[in-house]
Amino acid sequence: MIPPSPTVKEVKAPLAAAPGHRLTLTALATSGAGCRGAGMKDFFISYNAADKAWAEWIAWQLEASGWSVIVQAWDFRPGGNFALDMNNALTSTQRTIAVLSPSFLTSDYTAPEWAATFARDPTGAARRLIPVRVRECRPTGLLAPIVCIDLVGIATRDEARKVLIDGLRERVKPSEEPALPEPDPVKPRVAAEEPPWPPALEIAARVARGVLVRVARIGAAFLGAALITWLLLGSLLPGYVQENPLAAGAVALLWGAITALVLEAAVFLKRRFAPSSRSFGS
Question: pLDDT tens digits for 115-129?
Answer without folding.
Answer: 999 999 999 999 999
